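Re: [ENG-882] Designed sequences occasionally contain unexpected residues at chain ends

Forwarding the minimal case from QA. Structure tokens:
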């Protein structure tokens, strides 16, 4: 039997892995940079919390929050049809700030005080941990399947060169929208689980820092690598819990890690492991 501390640890890891894999689907698979991904975590969290508070069963609240995040993600994806690279990054960052502005100003959404008092899932802590880990495992399995499917190959083509993919007959617009919608829906599901885990949400939980944190997990793990992102998300999510002082210097430490990865191993953990494996095969 796990004690309460390790149950909490595994729950946080599972939510972080799901959230990081959702961004990996957009940025890693389809090459669309997003600096406001925490907004979709927040949309799912607020949707699940408010709908549960209104009396909707928790599973339906989680599903509705995920669908809402996915739908808004598809709308945001429409903007990616006209902008690329730096301009897309700025656009998605603007979406994150827009979400925070709306939430802070609307009393119906809790305003600055946030939302609390919504019903729990009815599961004990261990049961909820199992649910979270099952969702993370399902997200990982879906990502691995998607990577090897025809849809994954189309995403690769879009990520490598949109113009060439378009010349080869790939419907770039449709696949970019699909990536945004699916990635944001999964982020929304992670947000709903986060809300039911902490039982209180406020705008500060879904700010720019969280968007940079999840982007760090993807880059450090290896952009496009499912297993690398899982390892990085699991490790970085619990690091502040293991070493308390890190929380106060999280951005500094993550920034340093990002610099080191981009300087010495642009492929992240996955790239470093692959390089070591290649050297091992070539050495006599």
């Amino acid at each position: 039997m796990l004690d309460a501390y390790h149950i909490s640890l595994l729950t946080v890891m599972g939510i972080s892995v799901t959230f990081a894999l959702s961004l990996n689907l957009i940025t890693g698979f389809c090459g669309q940079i997003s600096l406001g991904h925490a907004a979709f975590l927040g949309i799912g969290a607020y949707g699940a919390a408010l709908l549960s508070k209104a009396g909707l069963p928790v599973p339906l609240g989680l599903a509705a929050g995920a669908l809402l995040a996915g739908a808004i993600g598809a709308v945001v994806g429409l903007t990616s049809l006209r902008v690329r690279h730096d301009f897309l990054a700025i656009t998605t960052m603007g979406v994150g700030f827009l979400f925070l502005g709306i939430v802070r100003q609307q009393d119906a959404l809790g305003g600055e005080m946030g939302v609390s008092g919504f019903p729990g899932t009815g599961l004990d802590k261990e049961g909820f941990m199992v649910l979270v880990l099952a969702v993370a495992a399902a997200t990982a399995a879906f990502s691995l399947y998607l990577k090897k499917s025809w849809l994954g190959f189309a995403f690769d083509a879009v990520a490598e060169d949109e113009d060439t993919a378009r010349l080869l007959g790939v419907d770039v617009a449709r696949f970019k929208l699909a990536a945004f919608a699916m990635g944001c829906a999964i982020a929304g599901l992670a947000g709903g689980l986060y809300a039911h885990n902490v039982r209180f949400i406020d705008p500060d939980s879904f700010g720019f820092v969280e968007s940079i944190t999840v982007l760090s997990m993807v880059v450090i793990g290896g952009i496009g690598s499912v297993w690398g992102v899982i390892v990085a998300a699991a490790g970085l999510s619990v690091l502040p819990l293991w070493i308390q002082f890190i929380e106060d210097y999280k951005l500094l430490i993550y920034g340093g890690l990002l610099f080191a990865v981009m300087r010495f191993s642009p492929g992240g953990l996955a790239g470093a492991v692959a390089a070591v494996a290649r050297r091992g095969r070539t050495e006599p």
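QA comment: On inspection the terminal residues look reasonable. Residues 4-282 form a domain with the ABC transporter involved in vitamin B12 uptake, BtuC fold (CATH 1.10.3470). Proposing we downgrade this to a documentation issue.
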